[in-house]
Amino acid sequence: MTGAPARLLAWLVVLATLLTACTPAVDLDETATERAITSSSAPPADVDPALPPTPTATPTPVPTPPAVPQAFAVNLYQEGDFVPQYTFDWCVAASIQIAHNLIDDTGGGSWADPAQQGELWEMARARSSNSFNGANPLGWAQVLTEVGMGPYTVVSIVDRDEALQTAARAIAATGRPVGLVMWSGRHAWVMSGFESIGDPAQFPEFSVTGVRVQDPLYPHGSGQWGPSPAPNTLLTPEQLATQFVVREPRRWSSDLPAGYLMVLPLAAS
User: Fold this and answer.
1) 3-class SS at 223?
2) What torsion, rounded to 10 degrees, do the Cα atoms 99, 111, 241, 122 define?
3) Given this model, what pLDDT does residue 36 score?
């Protein structure tokens, strides 16, 4: 029986030697880590590595809708700005006084004195030239400029809508009123404000829907041309057109085209 245990012990030693030879030399954890690194660097199975990367889509910008003209208004008039003409000849002088009151918001007092109105008429007449020896729009504009409300100039515009747009644009830009030559050149009004669809500063093709006026002849009016509107009346362009009509060139204005005549404020240079 002593030989059998010896042989059994020998076989166990041989078997242990064989098992030791089959054990891998690399640690199992290191092998797993290496395998994970190798697999993470490989491209996905469904992507062709020869193709360029797919670009990221850029959102399409939403266009800004165009601005829509809205109701717009300017009104320079305050209570006490209106002055009547004290004679039937002094409409230009009264219009100069009204213009001063519309412009002057300093509280320095209104121009309404009859003696001053007479002096302003003489000033305007001295700077005018026509066969009637009265005050015309050229003298009107020059006096406005000289007494510190200018600069003003005389313009004649063939189309009525364009004339009203020009007047409204000037009022909005300068904060000063416009002189309107009425009755085909026989009378003077002051345009002290307007209403429109669209701000003239934003919409070149805005439309004037109403005109604020001061007629120094109020409340008398004219049997031929119609009644004088009350101070600060808002007239439609069609209502204004019954008295604001085309002015044909005269001797003193032969260099101006036939059209709607206005004494227009200019932006100070």
Assistant:
1) coil
2) -90
3) 43
